[in-house]
């Protein structure tokens, strides 16, 4: 059985609204209101559970919104391990304007975390039992940039493989520390990481393989949105086109991709199969509205298309 844990330092309650047309001053009335537990690691856990695995969520939770988030996770049957914080858990909003087809997203910065709180989180992580630890999302204010590097290095010592999907200095520090199983930057995050503005697939593959060969991470997946992605390990570089889908909402593509890849890797599948499954899952996330994540039936169908193409 596959057991993963995920880490979400800055989770959210994702609220989605759908309206005919935005106008100022007037009340914008909507019949539908939907709230989901969200944030990188929580999204990964939700997709992982849908695929039949076990996922435990370590996350920070505070205030009345934190209590609501805890309850939402229970509804989704996610095993949860909240670390209590003083600040209020954030609420993010996605608003869909039907007349234009545009989607608007409001994402608050979230609470500031104290040193005592992030130390508690490190302690908690040191006793979580799992095969893979998936870290996804940005660092909240107050947490030092090398936090993920520290978590990955502690995990490795305990024989736990760390998968990281983050950006900026947090990603840079973790790659520099070099204890990662896999990283999944998108193109912009990858360009920032290497400090070069490349977008040619051959060059991306070379730069990603350099990182793998340096020992920083065993696998590097650079996701390229509608252009698919590139997988690099010390031994090989593989390119994969994106599945052809009619996009409804691109929210959750990255998290769905990571969840599906880890699901395959944990099951002992090849790197290449895991990669294609991940690319299929990213595409599958586009088929669901708002903050909805990829559905297993869509993932399998899009994956089968790759198999039948080759
Ligand atoms: N327009 C698209 N058409 C088909 N597949 C897509 C599209 N956008 C994304 N995908 C799939 O999802 C994967 C991940 O998407 P992307 O590269 O946009 O990740 P991301 O920027 O990290 O996303 P997120 O905003 O969720 O963090 C892609 O590699 C691809 O397989
Ligand atoms: Mg992403």
Automatic annotation (TrEMBL):
Gene3D superfamilies: 3.40.1190.20. GO terms for molecular function: 6-phosphofructokinase activity; ATP binding. The keyword Secreted does not apply. GO terms for cellular component: cytosol. Keywords: ATP-binding, Kinase, Nucleotide-binding, Transferase. Residues 10-295 form the Carbohydrate kinase PfkB domain. InterPro entries: Carboh/pur_kinase_PfkB_CS, PfkB_dom, Ribokinase-like, Tagatose/fructose_Pkinase. Belongs to the carbohydrate kinase PfkB family. PANTHER family: 1-PHOSPHOFRUCTOKINASE-RELATED, ATP-DEPENDENT 6-PHOSPHOFRUCTOKINASE ISOZYME 2. This is Phosphofructokinase. The lineage of its organism: Bacteria, Pseudomonadati, Pseudomonadota, Alphaproteobacteria, Sphingomonadales.
């Amino acid at each position: 059985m596959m057991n993963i844990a995920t880490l979400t330092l800055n989770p959210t309650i994702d609220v989605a609204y759908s309206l005919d047309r935005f106008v100022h001053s007037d009340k914008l009335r909507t019949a539908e209101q939907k709230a989901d537990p969200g944030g990188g690691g929580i999204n990964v856990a939700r997709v992982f559970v849908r695929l039949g695995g076990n996922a435990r969520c370590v996350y920070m939770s505070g205030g009345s919104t934190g209590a609501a988030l805890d309850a939402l996770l229970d509804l989704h049957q996610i095993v949860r391990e909240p670390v209590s914080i003083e600040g209020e858990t954030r609420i993010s909003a996605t608003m869909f304007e039907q007349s234009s087809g545009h989607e608007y997203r409001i994402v608050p910065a979230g609470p500031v975390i104290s040193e005592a709180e992030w130390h508690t989180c490190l302690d908690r992580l040191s006793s979580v039992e799992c095969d893979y630890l998936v870290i996804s999302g940005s660092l909240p204010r107050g947490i030092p940039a090398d936090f993920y590097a520290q978590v990955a290095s502690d995990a490795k010592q305990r024989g736990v493989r760390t998968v990281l999907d983050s950006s900026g200095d947090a990603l840079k520090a973790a790659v520099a520390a070099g204890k990662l199983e896999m990283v999944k930057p998108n193109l912009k995050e990858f360009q920032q990481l290497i400090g070069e503005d490349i977008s040619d697939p051959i060059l991306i593959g070379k730069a990603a393989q350099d990182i793998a060969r340096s020992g920083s991470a065993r696998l590097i997946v650079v996701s390229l949105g509608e252009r698919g992605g590139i997988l690099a390990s010390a031994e090989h570089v593989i390119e994969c086109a994106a599945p052809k889908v009619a996009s409804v909402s691109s929210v959750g593509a990255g998290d769905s991709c990571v969840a599906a890849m880890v699901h395959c890797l944990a099951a002992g599948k090849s790197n290449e199969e895991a990669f294609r499954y991940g690319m299929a899952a990213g595409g599958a996330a586009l088929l669901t509205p708002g903050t909805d994540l990829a559905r297993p039936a869509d993932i399998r169908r899009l994956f089968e298309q790759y198999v039948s193409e080759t």
